[in-house]
Specification:
Layout: E1 16-17, E2 22-23, E3 25-29, H1 41-46, E4 50-54, E5 71-74, H2 90-103, E6 107-110, H3 112-120, E7 124-127, E8 133-141, E9 157-164, E10 166-170, E11 177-180, E12 188-191, E13 195-198, H4 206-215, H5 217-222, H6 227-231, H7 234-253
Parallel strand pairs: 3-4, 3-5, 5-6, 6-13
Antiparallel strand pairs: 1-2, 7-10, 8-9, 8-11, 11-12, 12-13
Length: 256
């Protein structure tokens, strides 16, 4: 459920950090073929980050450990965070998230990736309590978000792709909501110093909207929407979304 722009598991851009004397590397877990890194692909390459995509979405087995990676991004997908029966690789992904937390590595979890962070850290995830959010949605920063090292630099009101039928119903211990929408109070949260979970899809763009709307047309109709009504706003919103979310990605990369 994302753009077809992906980072190949075999074309990782090797980037050397001259200040640290090391190559900064990020593992990206992609659950589905059309759930790629989207608008973040080009900025990651421009920043010189070595990326390795794994998961069923790219046909590469999820590794047992992160090895010498400096960070972890887990993208969205259709399964819930505990749907191991239909998505058996999720247990391995939860293990990588736990490793990232234990090692203090920067983590960015998007939609399912954010829900997985909540579950691994002691929170709970369940069906949406009011209604699904589908398409371009508005969010606002919470007071806690204003001082967050990643979220705090964002505009107080933002827009992004939303596409979820589950949500974080209880945040992990010692975590607070950083962003909220009218129907989902936990749009963003942080666990520890450098692990963030996002319910929304900052990586998603106009291509994402068209692909997801075509794939999930039935869900849209059940919620009083059409593929056209969901996809059309992104044709004009993409420049604004680039200006909002690419700087956030750059800030996350600065933690590597």
């Amino acid at each position: 459920m994302s753009t077809d722009t992906t980072i190949s598991a075999v074309e990782s851009t090797q980037a050397f950090d001259t200040e640290r004397g090391t190559t900064r590397t990020v593992v990206i877990v992609q659950h589905e073929e059309d759930a790629g890194i989207g608008r973040f692909a080009a900025p990651l390459k421009e920043l010189g980050i070595a990326t390795t995509a794994v998961g069923p979405g790219v046909g590469v087995e999820v590794p047992a450990t992160l090895g010498d990676a400096h960070g972890l991004i887990v993208l969205g997908g259709s399964p819930g965070p505990n749907d191991d029966g239909s998505a058996p690789w999720l247990a391995q992904v939860r293990g990588l998230i736990r490793e990232a937390l234990d090692r203090g590595l920067p983590y960015l979890g998007i939609c399912l990736g954010g829900q997985l962070l909540a579950v691994v850290s002691g929170g709970t995830v369940g069906p949406v309590r009011i209604r699904p959010e589908l398409g371009l949605g508005r969010m606002r920063m919470t007071p806690a978000g204003e001082t967050d090292p990643l979220i705090g630099a964002l505009p107080r009101q933002t827009r992004s792709m939303q596409w979820h039928f589950e949500e974080v119903t209880r945040l992990p211990p010692s975590s607070v909501s950083l962003m909220a929408s009218d129907v989902c109070p936990n749009q963003a949260f942080r666990v520890g110093p450098r692990a963030w979970g996002l319910q929304f899809h900052p990586e998603a763009d106009a291509t994402s909207a068209k692909n997801w709307a075509a794939t999930d047309e039935g869900a849209l109709v059940r919620n009083g929407l059409t593929p056209e009504s969901v996809a059309a706003p992104f044709e004009t919103a993409d420049p604004e979304l680039d200006e909002t979310w690419i700087p956030m990605l750059r800030r996350w990369v600065s933690f590597l």
